[in-house]
Every structure is written in C-alpha cells, then in structure tokens.
Amino acid sequence: MGEEARPEAQCLKEGPLDSARGSAPGPAQWEAEDVRARAAELGPWFHNLDLRGVRTAPDHFLFDFPAVKWASFRDHVPADLSGRTVLDIGCNGGFYSLEMKRRGAARVLAVDHDPHYLAQARFAAEVEGLEIEFRQLSVYDVGALGERFDVVLFLGVLYHLRHPLLALDLIHEHACADLLVFQTMQRGSEDIVAVEPDYDFFAPAPFDAPGFPKLHFIEHSYAHDPTNWWAPNRAASAAMLRSAGFEPFANPEAEIFLCRRVAKAESGAVYPARSEGKEGQGSAPSPGSGDPQRAGGPLIP
C-alpha cells in the first residue's frame, strides 16, 4: 500500500528521463549521519530501506518491508541479469530497482507518477552507488517509452489503479518483452478453481465458490488509504494476468506471480480520446455539442 493521492487524473504527468549516474558522490562519501539527515528530509518513506546502516522507515507498520516480501520470491527471479533490461513500474522508494541492479542488470529504468517517491529512490541509488535511470510516468503512459524490457516489475501498484486491467493490457502491448513479476494486495479466498470456457446464464452457483475469480471494489478507503481501490482474491489475480496475455509459471506466495508474456489474438488496450481544453486537461462540451444533459435540459427533472 502506497501513499498516492486520489484522484488518478493527477497521476498522468509524464516527466523527463533522469538518472542517478554522474550525480552520485559515491558510496564512500556518504557518512551515516548525512544519510540519516537526508532520509529524514525526504520522509515519510513507504520502503524501509537499509542505507549504510540507516533505516528509512524504522517504525514501518509492516516492519522490514519490502525486504520481507522480497525474501519470499527472490529465489524465483534470475540471480544473474547481465545484459538484461528492467522496468520497475511504481518504483516507490526504489528497493526493487536496487535489487535488480545488484543482480547485474545492464539497465534499470524506474518509473513512478509521484515525484516524492522518485526523489527517495534517486537518493537511495546515489547512496548505494548504483546507476539507475528515473522517470516520472504513469503506468497508463508506458507506451511513451517506445521500448520493451526483458523484465518488468509491477509490484504493489494494481490495487491503487482505477483501471487495473487496462494497465496490464498496456504493459503487455508496450513494455514487457518476456518476464513480468507481479504483486498485488489480495483479500478473500486463496483457493483457485478451474475456470470454465463458458457458464450457463441460469446457473449462478459458480460465482459463489470461494475460488472463483473476484475483484472487490473499495468505494471509499481501506487501511486509511483512499488510493486502495481494489482487492482481488488470488484467483482473480491469476485470471486477470492470463486475460492480459501473461501466463503465470510460479506463484511462490499468494500475492506474487511470475509470468511469461504470451501472444494474444487481439489487443485489450484502449486509448480514450480527450477533449483539448486548457493545458490539455480537457473541457466540458458546450451547450448543443452532443451532451444531452446540456443540449436539451436534464433528462430526469
């Protein structure tokens, strides 16, 4: 669960590509007190990183997070990423980007819509002396990158999105070349039942099975976080991934899926048009321009 703010409209800003390379003083030049002071300036942190012995979120409600989550699936991620490219979508404080670079990835691009998180991740890369590129970017805009990556990390993001299946479709169509590492908060049953190719309209019983794919919608807030929109059960996570063209081959713990990108008969991605208003934010249609509520008065008085 992150710290993003609702509504998502403010998450669509695309920023310039930037990197920790060249700007880092080098790990030998960072003293613990300097790290502690700068980490405090950049707080609060959601990633509890260990930077030269300094914890960025020592009072984290999930304790040693995300290291404790990483421990559950790190052995399923290739130990040697030499020559591979990695895209970390929703990088937050940069924990997973750092781990990918430590495994020898030739290039790691970390993106997040929130400049606060990007500043944290950039600082962490500088302290650790790791060359990682950063860009302010929404998952909905991954097509703007114009390239596919050998490994895509999509961890702890899906449940914050208004349009989760669209995000997976866009990653499949534009960003992922081979391996997707996926995680989402889940609630409900961890059972997974076999999905039939079709269901009879007059036989609703399958929908009541605990292991049937279900995506719970959160209208207001969950865990004091209004950006938590969805909570799929385990079966729904697997089903959504398959539907978007990602075939799970490992599920080392309930929330983690490692998937291979597979071909799809047709794309599921859509690209809604936006009216051109002030600063590209869109504008309301003028009376008579096709809005029935405006053209002819209210349909329901």
General description of the model:
There is one protein chain. The longest helix has 14 residues. Strand 11 and strand 12 form a beta hairpin. The radius of gyration is 21 Å and the shape is globular. The protein contains seven helices and twelve strands. With 301 residues, it is α/β, with parallel strands linked by helices. The N terminus is likely disordered. It has one domain: Vaccinia Virus protein VP39 (Rossmann fold). The protein starts with 16 loop residues before the first strand and ends in a 6-residue tail after the last helix. Strands 1-6-5-4-7-8-12-11 form an eight-stranded mixed sheet, sandwiched between helices. The protein has a two-stranded antiparallel sheet with strand order 2-3. The protein has a two-stranded antiparallel sheet with strand order 9-10.
